Amino acid sequence: MDLPYFQRFQTWLNKSLQDTGEKLAIGESENGEFRFHTPTQAFGHNIERLRGHLRTFIQTLPHVSGSRLASHSINPASVDDMQTLVRDIEDDPAYIVACLDQDLKSVDPLILQNQHDPAALEAIKAQVEEFTRPCIEAGKRTFAVIHLQALLSRINKLGSEFQDSATFMQAAEMIAEQIHSAAQPKEDIDYTALRSFSTGGVPPFFMELQPDPDSTGCGTYAANAFFGGSALNHPANSDPIADADLLKRMRTACHHAPIDQPMPKPGDIELYHDHYSDKLLSQLNEIKADRFILMSGLNSHYVTFRRDRTGQWYRIDSRQYRDQEPIDPASYLNRLYQGQNMDFLSETDRHISIISLKGENLSVAILTQ
Predict the structure, then answer these.
(1) Is the same domain home to 233 and 354?
(2) Helix (H) / strand (E) containing 365
(3) Does residue 200 fall inside a structural domain?
(4) Which top-level group of life is the source organism from (predicted)?
(5) pLDDT per residue over 129-164, tens digit each?
(6) Max alpha carbon distance in the chain (Å)?
(7) Residues 49 and 155 in one domain
(8) Are residues 315 and 232 in the same domain?
(9) Within 10 A of 172 (CB to CB), how many other CB atoms are there?
(10) Domain match, 152 and 80 both
(11) Degrees (nearest 5) of the Cα angle 192, 224, 147?
């Protein structure tokens, strides 16, 4: 029993009980259709098969915190029991999330069919909002964001195949707005559940909490924020990691990362060295990619910058979980060095390390080995 099959059974059960006032039991005919039995007759001989179908269906639902279906007995002995079981499934967050996934997958063909009719997007937008509402009301904003991000990724892929249609761009902007809306309030978001390497650059982005703000393991957290998933394991010790060593670990992770999403080629990630200066600030704001890691010698702390589809940069700092601050890298560095007397700062304090995707026009030393 899959989700569409369960929904057909759900509809059949509700309609059948409305159409008759008689107390009836449930069975199944030889061709697989459900049927009633009179009160004097027990359940049909296939009731065990029906129970098995329901148990299998529940096992196929996503793992969602707060779901109680795994502990459900799934052993209805009467129509009342069956009604209660169906209602329990309908109200369970795991079922709600599964419905959202199925519903949003129906949006792709709608957009494809209406690619030359931008006016149709308003109706599609209303549908997407209706699909998403139960998930948000169930307190599962993270899953709403994840599935909307997946929809956005599919729309972007369609748009790349039909470059003459502006509808896909408008649809992508529409979904991006709904992702922003679904992500509020931030306290409901499980940032580690997000996967953001190929979502079209829409916050909130993947990030991990650094349990001890005073530890020096921030390089790994920054790298994972860069990849949009837990690509690097956190080392047992919290010794500081040199930028060249972090680059090597990131390149290795491109081949062996335990995350199911696209990854860059190892050689496409490069390390840049420079010193804090007006020239560097200007170059940072001209970065073409949508992500990079930055570490200043002033605080020896790695942070990741991610950029959304509108061009807005966000600082992802493992020491400040959930605080994905909208700020450009130049403003961040200016704030960091504010009040410092540059004449008295050492070379180490002024040093800036940047780990970015290949192809940036940074006139600094590039370490690629």
Answers:
(1) yes
(2) strand 365-367
(3) no
(4) Bacteria
(5) 999 999 999 889 999 998 998 898 888 888 877 766
(6) 96
(7) no
(8) yes
(9) 22
(10) no
(11) 40
Contacts 24+ apart (CB under 8 A), 168-171: 168/111, 168/115, 170/118, 170/121, 171/111, 171/121, 171/124
Q: Which domain holds residue 262?
A: 218-367
Helices (H), the chain: 3-19, 47-60, 79-91, 93-104, 107-113, 121-137, 141-161, 167-182, 218-227, 243-256, 278-284, 329-337, 347-350
Q: H or E stretch including 27?
A: strand 25-28
Burial bucket for residue 276 (CB in 10 Å: 0-12, 13-18, 19+)? buried
How far does Cα 143 stand from its chain's mean position? 7
Q: What is the pLDDT of residues 229-280, one digit of tens each?
A: 888 888 766 667 899 999 999 999 988 777 777 788 898 999 999 999 999 9
196 occurs within a structural domain: no
What is the pTM (predicted TM-score) of this model?
A: 0.75
User: In sequence order, what DSSP letters do the residues of 287-310 get, joined into one string?
Assistant: --SSEEEEEETTTTEEEEEEE-TT
Structural tokens at position 47: 């009731």
Q: Which of 96, 104, 148, 157 is CA-nearest to residue 127?
A: 104
Q: Which two tokens stand for residue 42?
A: 């027990």
